[in-house]
Amino acid sequence: MSFRLAFTAVLCLASFESVAQSPADFYRGKTVDLLIGYGVGGGYDVYGRAIARHIGKHIPGEPNVVVKNLDGAGGLRLANHMYQVAARDGLALATIGRSAAFDPLFGNKAAQFDGSKFGWVGSANSEVSVCVALKDAGVNRFEDLYTKELIIAGTAAANDTDQIPKVINGLLGTKFKLTTGYPTGNGVNLSMERRETYGRCGWSWSSIKATHNHWIESGELRMLVQVALSKHPDLPEVPLIGELARTDEQRQILRVLFASQVLGRPFFTTPDAPPERLAALRKAFLDTLNDKQFMEEAERAKLEITPVSGAEVQALVADIYSTPRDIAEKAGALMR
Prior knowledge:
It is a single chain. By secondary structure, the protein is α/β, with parallel strands linked by helices. The chain has 13 helices and eleven strands. The strands form four sheets. The protein has a three-stranded parallel beta sheet with strand order 2-1-3, with helices on both faces. A three-stranded antiparallel beta sheet has the order 10-4-11. α5 (160-172) links the parallel β6 (150-153) and β7 (176-179). α3 (43-55) runs antiparallel to α11 and α9 crosses α13. The longest helix has 18 residues, at 3-20. The radius of gyration is 21 Å and the shape is globular.
């Protein structure tokens, strides 16, 4: 046998062994990186670290799971990393801002990825975000925003804190005044405590309950509007953003922009991860969210858990990426 033929045979055998290797054989003794696209202490970090503490025992082979924060640009830095740099072998999991997955669709040139090609593992909950005002801001209900300015804080152009108020201003004519550039969600909250700003828009209801429940109990916050496809049972009297649309086109744009709320706390792996490993990660994710110890920890931390399967997330992302160009362009223009 010639050297070339022998070398080709070795490559084919290695390829066959890679394909034939079970997820348990692959993951055993390895380390899975769980990458979080935000800084320490915010809602995404809290969810990510809680899941990281339990998911390893549900992944076949029980690998170690190590948390790493790779924050920047509202999650776009991490999304670009997962698309362009991370090995496509199923050893990297990531969580980013729910709306960042759709930034390429809306013309954000900093988003160098196609969100429909990621291997979506699932979402820890179907999220409802809210816009809130401090009780001394003089804005007590959504209708007040048509005539009164509300100074709010944001983190980055790709983040909900910035995108949601821009969209609502542009589409409905409200008067959110955005002061952006705060490094983290915690920085946004501190700005409110210091009365540098007087509200926040695109704040996860689950995150408020987990990290600032004392503000709810004390009556510090005025709930102005829910940003989601359906209302949260905790907030039956707070209007839903879609209810405030005046035309069918406005309703279409709001649906496209805020369907991402279903991806409340999304987790994904790289494109082209081996299908059997993606399937194993999806099962491990759902098993984790139903794990008794995890559920007890989530309850203590006031983390809202309403799981969305990886297959459901994958289908939703594909559906939104098929949005007609004119609607996507108008939505993108509003965010910019």
